[in-house]
Each structure stands twice: as structure tokens, then as C-alpha cells.
Design brief:
The chain is of the alpha/beta class. It has 2 domains: 209 residues, Spore Coat Polysaccharide Biosynthesis Protein SpsA, Chain A (Alpha-Beta Complex); 64 residues. The protein contains 9 helices and 12 strands. The strands form 2 sheets. Strands 1, 2, 3, 4, 5, 6, 7, 10, 11 and 12 form a 10-stranded mixed β-sheet that branches. The longest helix is centred in the last third of the chain and has 20 residues. The chain is globular.
């Protein structure tokens, strides 16, 4: 049997050094397209000069994780690749990881997504994600997050979703269920994509034999207010799009309102006022059906 054809899509935004390291880890034999999400001109030229052999799609503006990756996915599908591997520019695949992902995913024709064991860059040996879960209230989480890697995951197994820093997608599945929803722009778009595929009968597979180091999130990760905005707006978009039931909706609205009240009324949360404003804006924008990038607040 011939080896499956796979194209890696690396999304770059003003981080040419990280993108080049990501490319180096893939090796010379994996077809790659780099999608640039509106980087500065000098960052774009640095990439072109360092790797003139790699196709570079310069979008000219920032379309977010969803829009940028969709451009790369479309490029790969038009060229007939059977699989598309989405990689963040700060993600480093271990040797043999792609082969392990492909081998596990090919074992079952209903596998639509496969993802690796994701480790923190610092400290080494700490798990960032061993596949994602979603509970009865549609709250998402990463298995074994921030636990030491003790070899506790030995076999490939189905999960609810795969983190978007490294996700292998079957072209056949993409053609059936569609690409990433660009309304999300960033955050929860890969969660929605995986859940949408599962609703259509596809399997999401976690493959611990494939390993990846991701520098984007650390143990002491402290999200910025813009992340609060996207998580609030996009979670409600996910619930409405995938027709979640009463309990997830009640939980989401209760949690948001409780958080807004705490960040507004309790003196110990004064430092969270920027997050409060972002949360409120995210909720408003969901009900206004305002999608895409977070609006920029103009200061007087």
C-alpha cells in the first residue's frame, strides 16, 4: 500500500524564527505550505529568504486561526492531498510523530482527526494536552493538563476533541463536514470542528506515540482580556451552532453572569476590570451576531 499523501499547513504571524524551527522539525520530505496571516513586511521577507523552496501564501491581513488555516486547507485539498496537518508556528513535532499519527489514523476509515500528546516547552516533561474532553455541560478540558508525563498514556484512543496546535485532518472528512468556521476567528474553533465531525459520525483519535512540544501555553499561563472575549462569544456560538441542550446553555449563561457580577462588585477583583469589559463585550457581540476579530476599543 502506498504511503498516504499529507500536506502540513503552518500558520505564521510575525514569528519567522519559530516558523523556521517548525519547518526544520518536519524535515525535508513532508510537503508544506506556510500561510502568513498579515505579518510585517520584514518578517515575511525573512521567511522567503530562508526557505524559498516552501510555498508561502501571504494573505495580506490577519484572518485568525480559522481563516488562515482554511486558506492552507483549501490549498492542500486543491492539490489532492489525503491528509492535512495543521501546525501552530510554535509547535515542534518529535521525530516519527507524523508517521505515528498517520499509522493510527489509517487503521480506521472513520477517523477524521488525529492528534499527538502535547507537552509544555518549559518545564520539560509536563503534559499540556492528552486529548480534549467535554462534559455534560459542554465545558471543555484537556486531559492530564500540567501533569508529569509518566508514560500513563500508552495506546491510541478516541477523545472528544484535539487541540488546534497540531491536528491531523482527513481530506474526505473535511469535504463532508466543511472547514473551520471563520466566524470564530480564534479560540474554540477546533473544538467546534471536532464536535461537528463527531456529530457526523467521525472519530477523533488521540495518539500518544506521536509527541509534540508546544511553547504557546505555559504552566503559569495568564490569559489576556482578548481571550476572555473570544471564549465568551465563541462558546455561545458553539452551543447555538451544534444545538446544545438546556443544561449547557443554562450553565454558560449562569457562569458568565456570576463572573460579571463578581468582577464588578467585589473589591478583590478590581484587577479583572479589563476582563470584565471583554466578557461583557463578547456576550453582547454574540447576541448582535458580530463575528470575526474582536473590535478595537479606541482610547480618548
Amino acid at each position: 500500500m502506498n504511503a498516504p499523501s499529507v500536506c502540513a499547513v503552518i500558520l505564521n504571524w510575525n514569528r519567522p524564527a519559530e516558523t523556521l524551527a517548525c519547518l526544520d522539525a518536519l524535515g525535508p520530505d513532508v510537503p508544506v505550505v506556510v500561510v502568513d496571516n498579515g505579518s510585517r513586511a520584514e518578517a515575511l521577507e525573512q521567511l522567503r529568504a530562508a526557505r524559498p523552496d516552501v510555498p508561502l501564501l501571504a494573505l495580506g491581513c490577519n484572518l485568525g486561526y480559522a481563516g488562515g488555516n482554511n486558506a492552507g486547507i483549501q490549498w492542500a485539498l486543491e492539490r489532492g492531498y489525503e491528509w492535512v496537518l495543521l501546525l501552530n508556528d510554535d509547535a515542534i513535532l518529535a521525530p516519527g510523530a507524523l508517521e505515528a499519527l498517520l499509522s493510527a489514523a489509517q487503521s480506521d476509515p472513520r477517523v477524521g482527526f488525529a492528534g499527538p500528546l502535547v507537552l509544555h516547552a518549559e518545564p520539560q516533561g509536563m503534559i499540556q494536552s492528552a486529548g480534549g474532553l467535554i462534559d455534560s455541560r459542554w465545558r471543555s478540558s484537556h486531559r492530564a493538563q500540567d501533569e508529569p508525563d509518566r508514560g500513563q498514556f500508552a495506546a491510541a484512543e478516541p477523545v472528544d476533541w484535539i487541540t488546534g496546535c497540531a491536528i491531523l485532518a482527513r481530506a474526505e472528512m473535511i469535504r463532508q463536514v466543511g472547514m473551520l468556521d471563520e466566524r470564530f476567528f480564534m479560540y474554540e474553533e477546533e473544538l467546534e470542528w471536532c464536535l461537528r465531525a463527531k456529530q457526523a459520525g467521525w472519530t477523533v483519535l488521540f495518539v500518544p506515540q506521536a509527541r509534540l512540544v508546544h511553547a504557546g501555553v505555559g504552566l503559569n499561563y495568564n490569559p489576556q482580556p482578548y481571550i476572555t472575549y473570544y471564549m465568551a462569544r465563541n462558546h455561545l456560538l458553539l452551543l447555538s451552532k451544534l444545538k446544545a441542550g438546556f443544561l449547557p446553555w443554562a450553565d454558560a449563561l449562569f457562569q458568565n453572569l456570576r463572573t460579571l457580577a463578581a468582577w464588578t462588585l467585589l473589591p478583590r477583583w478590581r484587577a479583572q476590570r479589563a476582563h470584565r469589559d471583554a466578557l461583557w463585550q463578547g456576550l453582547l457581540d454574540y447576541f448582535r451576531k458580530r463575528w470575526g476579530p474582536m473590535p478595537v476599543t479606541k482610547t480618548p
